[in-house]
Design a protein that fits this description.
Layout: H1 2-13, H2 22-25, H3 27-49, H4 58-72, H5 89-100, H6 105-118, H7 120-130, H8 133-145, H9 147-151, H10 159-178, H11 182-198, H12 204-215, H13 223-245, H14 255-261, H15 273-279, H16 283-297, H17 299-315, H18 328-354, H19 358-370, H20 377-380, H21 383-412
């Protein structure tokens, strides 16, 4: 029974619809124009209008970490001693790029600009593969124009790389599902691993992907090589932590900080570190203690915080600042785009969940996982890649259903 539940998705949204329209055949020039537009907007912000310090805040910590890795061969965030406070997906990528370029920051900025602009390609591919070319181009245009996707390009943070990997994962999953060759399986599993090691918020996708593969009769054989590839990708990081730090850490030791910071409703209280140390608890353990005690003593208050409250902090505002320094009309348009796509994504996600769509389950899993941690607009921004894909798929499916109803009505009149 459960197997039939999942297999319905194979027929609905995992097969590419026939698309022989003139517009589809001529989509490439439009896609190139959108790509050029994305590069222009990002380079304009990074090199001309933006006033944001590229290495401010966490960016400066990452840069110091990478310098230390290059000079002293010590992998450590916020310390001179080895640690596992952050996952290696972004630091190792940045280390490779900066080492090759002799730590030329401007060159790294161009790499990040190109990655940000290139994100339109997997978004276009995924949406077009499930709908029509016009939907893919609209999704690509959203990625090119959405202000937070431009803003994040001007910061030395994980977001630009993570958003690209997130979009690339779903495009790769689509290809693997339609053509489950060994290469496609390895590529998708490797992208998932890199994405998780860049931002652990993708972790729930491993379990959702495994579930979909198990419950699809034609795809069960994929599961073993898929999980084996994930294990191989994680192995160097896990072994390094065990050998160097004598600890078994799969993700990051610093994740407890984000959990603890998000444990107190509406940020009205802060952690009592004196109590935490007296109890001999880690940040993760103390954070869970605060959450469980809160649910026990003030159930509805804490339930509201871990649902509506955190969703509000994640999505009520765009992740952008005055440093974007673009024309007000553009920023106001971005605000309308933000609230418009947010409003549309709610029914779209619910609709796709009913239709048992893989991406919708991943979106929901990632969102529920994120609700455990500190909610900020920065951590909400990557979800807008998933919102635009969700809205595109749902809009096409509804339009297709409406056309079928209209056609049927005409036939019966």
């Amino acid at each position: 029974m459960l197997e039939k539940f999942i297999l319905k998705d194979d027929k609905l949204l995992m097969n590419k619809p026939s698309d022989s329209s003139i517009f589809a055949r001529k989509a490439l020039p439009f896609l190139i124009l959108i790509f050029v537009l994305a590069i222009l907007l990002r380079s304009l912000f990074v090199f001309v209008t933006g006033t944001q310090d590229f290495l401010e805040g966490d960016g400066g910590n990452y840069y110091t970490m990478i310098q230390q890795l290059a000079q002293d061969h010590v992998y450590s965030y916020g310390s001179e001693d080895p640690n596992s406070r952050v996952t290696p997906g972004f630091p190792i990528f940045a280390y490779i790029v900066l080492s090759v370029s002799s730590f030329n920051i401007d060159l790294y900025k161009w790499v990040q600009i190109l990655i940000g602009a290139a994100t339109i390609l997997p978004v276009y591919y995924f949406i077009k593969a499930n709908t029509r070319a016009v939907y893919g181009l609209i999704g690509a245009l959203f990625v090119a124009l959405y202000p937070p996707f431009i803003y994040m390009t001007g910061l030395f943070l994980t977001e630009t790389l993570f958003v690209f990997l997130l979009a690339l994962f779903f495009a790769s999953w689509q290809r693997m599902w339609n053509k489950p060759s060994l290469w496609n399986i390895i590529l998708n599993a490797a992208l998932l691993s890199w994405g998780i090691l860049t931002r652990p918020g993708m972790l729930p996708i491993i379990f959702i992907a495994a579930l979909f593969l198990v419950l699809s009769k034609s795809k069960r054989r994929i599961l073993f090589p898929y999980l084996l590839t994930v294990a191989v990708c994680f192995l160097p990081w896990v072994l390094r932590n065990y050998i160097v730090l004598h600890e078994f850490t799969i993700l990051a030791a610093g994740s407890g900080n984000a959990l603890l910071a998000g444990a107190f409703p509406y940020f009205k209280e802060s952690a009592n570190y004196t109590e935490m140390y007296a109890l001999g608890l880690s940040q993760s353990q103390y954070g869970m203690r605060v959450i469980l005690n809160g649910l026990s003593d003030q159930f509805f208050y804490y339930l509201g915080w871990f649902s509506y409250g955190k969703l509000y902090y994640l999505f009520s505002n765009m992740w952008v600042s005055s440093s974007l320094n673009f024309p007000k009309l553009y920023v106001y348009g971005g605000v309308l785009l933000h609230y418009g796509i947010t409003a549309c994504s709610i029914p779209a996600l619910l609709y796709l969940l009913i239709k048992k769509n893989f991406m919708a389950f991943c979106f929901t899993g990632m969102l529920l996982f994120q609700l455990l941690f500190i909610p900020t607009a920065r951590y909400g921004a990557p979800f807008f890649i998933l919102t635009v894909m969700s809205v595109g798929l749902a809009a096409y499916s509804l339009q297709k259903g409406t056309k079928q109803v209209v056609t049927l009505k005409k036939m019966t009149d």
